[in-house]
Specification:
Shape: elongated
Order of helices and strands: HHEEEHHEHEHEHEHEHEHHEH
Structural class: alpha/beta
Distance between the termini: 62 Å
Strand content: 5-15%
Oligomer: single chain
CATH class of the largest domain: Alpha Beta
CATH architecture of the largest domain: Alpha-Beta Barrel
Number of domains: 2
Largest sheet: 8 strands, parallel
CATH superfamily of the largest domain: Dihydropteroate synthase-like
């Protein structure tokens, strides 16, 4: 048959010969060159097999060539460095904490170890309050038994849920709530310090008139423990708060509202008051998922990039109030108030997911510390950020370091 076959044939010619000689199968036959198939052409199975074999050979040849490709990561040159801040004081430092946390110290963008390895992983501080408050069911079910006792609430966060730190919110001091005296609030801080031995964050109620007095009393009650006092901002007497923090050996949280210039201004005011650079953590405000997350991400990322480029007014570790994720109605409402909406799914999952997505997003932007509410959300953010950092487990006793550049082969 080969002696009669022309040098160039069409599939139609091949099909005619197959029918003429009643060919069932082609052995060791390759069809080379450009193949054109007209619409409506019926192709015998034997021809299809020959075409497939040729295609497989071609793919194998191309795959061998792709092996020679190399993957290279671009590196950036940064002039700045983020200030390193330690929160908490052990007995060696004059405090009673059993451990401290250190954040900051970065010389490159977060988790980008190709430029410069991150010196410290992000940390999680879980909220507790000085009085029972209205919480979403997904959160309340974890704390129903301890909401009357701030010390027990803090203890549960640490011993059951593995929080690195605890944030005590003195919300009862708000004149519109209970107007708890500052000295009584200070006793609550003492109770929390006795209940747990991790570093703590001390927050007021947010009332600009009452908070300076409350935070001053709390700072005195926690003298020597190197707590994070939250916070100094331009809308209240930041000078009184900053001086109380310095006098009692604490770190100050410099809080502004999504404004990079306001953050630089407040930080400069704190410098003029004499606040040491390693006693400042900044909080540019967290606008959460469904509540302006893109603004928060952009603001934090701009601050981190500016700091790495050499802007010393912004070169500080960043705290993010991830708890704000519960401000989005989709995080806690059972169903959409709009009848035409599709099903939102179980609220017990949505709230924690809103926290997790907010935390991870702002961690990529440059967040060093996350104040969170739902314990499982906090655990998830901690596990993922530690993996990205290069630590294989989230326990203190079984820390396994991994080569993050070899993530393809890593098994958690």
């Amino acid at each position: 048959m080969n002696s009669k076959m022309p040098k160039e044939v069409s599939l139609a010619d091949i099909m005619k010969m197959i029918e003429e000689y009643e060919v069932v199968e082609l052995e060791d036959v390759r069809i080379e060159g450009d193949v054109e198939i007209e619409l409506g052409t019926v192709i015998a199975p034997a021809v299809i097999q020959a075409l497939q074999q040729q295609q497989q050979l071609q793919v194998r040849k191309e795959a061998v060539e792709l092996v020679e490709a190399r993957f290279e990561v671009g590196k950036a040159e940064w002039n700045g460095e983020i200030e390193e801040v330690t929160i908490g004081a052990t007995s060696a430092d004059g405090g009673t904490r059993e451990r401290t946390v250190t954040i900051g110290g970065e010389k490159a963008l977060p988790f980008y170890n190709f430029d410069h390895p991150m010196p410290h992983p992000p940390v999680i501080s879980v909220d507790c309050f000085d009085m029972p408050i209205s919480l979403a069911k997904a959160v309340r079910e974890h704390y129903q038994d301890v909401m009357e006792d701030p010390g027990e609430w803090a203890k549960k966060n640490v011993h059951k849920f593995g929080a690195d730190m605890v944030t005590i919110h003195l919300i009862s001091t708000d004149p519109m709530i209970k107007d708890t005296p500052a000295r009584e609030a200070a006793k609550t801080v003492e109770e929390v310090l006795q209940a747990v031995k991790v570093p703590i964050v001390i927050g007021g109620s947010g009332n600009p008139d009452k908070d300076p007095e409350v935070l001053e009393a709390a700072a005195e009650a926690a003298a020597g423990e190197r707590c994070l006092i939250a916070s100094a901002n331009l809308n209240m007497d930041y000078e009184r708060i900053a001086k109380a923090a310095m006098a009692n050996g604490h770190v100050i949280l410099s809080w502004t509202q999504l404004d990079i210039n306001a953050q630089k201004t407040l930080n400069r005011y704190l410098f003029k008051l004499g606040v040491p650079r390693n006693d400042i953590v900044i909080d540019p405000t967290t606008a959460a998922l469904g509540y302006g997350l893109d603004y928060a991400f952009t603001n934090i990322e701009r601050m981190r990039i500016s700091a790495l480029k050499g802007d010393t007014d912004l070169a500080f570790p960043i705290s993010c109030g991830i708890t704000n994720a519960w401000g989005a109605r989709e995080a806690w409402m059972k169903n959409s108030p709009i009848k035409e909406d599709s099903d939102w799914g179980p609220a017990s999952y949505r709230g924690p997911l809103y926290e997790i997505i907010t935390g991870l997003t702002l961690g990529i932007a440059g967040g060093d510390m996350f104040m969170m509410m739902h314990p499982e959300a906090g655990a998830a953010v901690k596990k993922i950020t530690r993996m990205l950092f290069g630590i294989g487990t989230d326990t203190e006793t079984e820390v396994k370091h991994i080569d993050i550049e070899d993530w393809v082969r890593w098994k958690g």
